[in-house]
Amino acid sequence: MPLPPRWVRRVLVAPAVVVGAVILVTTLPVWLLVATGLTALVPGYLRLPRVLWMVTFYLLWDSAALVSLFGLWVASGFGWRVRSPAFQRTHYVLAGWFLRQLFRQARWVLRLRIDVEGDVAGGGLAGHPIVLASRHAGPGDSFILVHALLNWFEREPRIVLKDTLQWDPAVDVMLNRLPNRFIAPTPFGAPRRVPAPSLTDQVGQLAHGLDANDAFVIFPEGGNFTAERRRRRIEGLRREGRTAMAARAEAMRHVMAPRPGGILAALDAAPDAGVVFVAHTGLDRMVTVGDVWRELPMDKRIVMHGWQVPRDEIPLGREERIEWLYGWWERIDAWVAARSAALADGSAGREPAA
Predict the structure, then answer these.
(1) At 201, phi and psi to the nearest 5?
(2) Alpha-carbon separation of residue 320 from 83, 98, 123, 224, 326 (angstroms)
(3) Which domains are delineated in the chain?
(4) InterPro entries, alphabetically (predicted)?
């Protein structure tokens, strides 16, 4: 569905979520009885009650966040100072707190576990901003990365996201008050012949002025990995005459060929930033709503691995940087293959304190 204008999201969608949360909570005992009665008919241990509880919690979580954000809007002079440094920091603290509550519930109800390997935070780059380039596979990887950056590594993320995430009212309000950028193919209601703003320009603007504890988060694949998207990306490279890149993309089985424009623009706009590449596995098979339902209750172990690259190790020329980016994506592809096999064997990783 196309994303409606901001005033529709604020006046209609956000209140509807709050009303829906109130209705669901007041009728929760009835729904729990129904879910418990039907649970024997559905595979998975207590799948229906667990899913019902997570849906209820998420609606309450979203509603509580909206109420808190409304309070901050009033306190800022009805939006007058909402983008001032003090209120920006308050919003980051609030986002971290709400994400901690969300992942505590996910651990308890869905038995979702996040293990971290390597250097996702760019610890060796302390005192410098980082550009964090992540694999994109499965729903929730944006949430997981932001949770890790805010609550484990004390970084303030700036994120390039798809505009459709603004259907979630709390995400919509919170992230539009912070320095993030939602990317849309075309404006709402505009004919398809109207071009979208340049991704390179938008990314460059967002990456400008990063400070020492900022983390610029981007997903160079441009979308969740699917076999069909991977195939189209390879065909596109061939049409552009990049046959060598197409061959390398075809050899990568677990990731799509990265689109270099965004990360190159970020590196140009943030000349002091190092780079952290992040791979993860555990959500790979959950792309559509049907996939998510089949995997619930999750009982998942998500493993994230980070590699840091100091600024002086980043090539200077555009073509050299594209070659360098492809090399890292090949490394990520190899890691995903190896880690998927290790997870199937039940090997353990480590998890930082939340």
Answers:
(1) -65, -45
(2) 38, 41, 26, 26, 10
(3) 6-344 (3.40.1130)
(4) Plipid/glycerol_acylTrfase
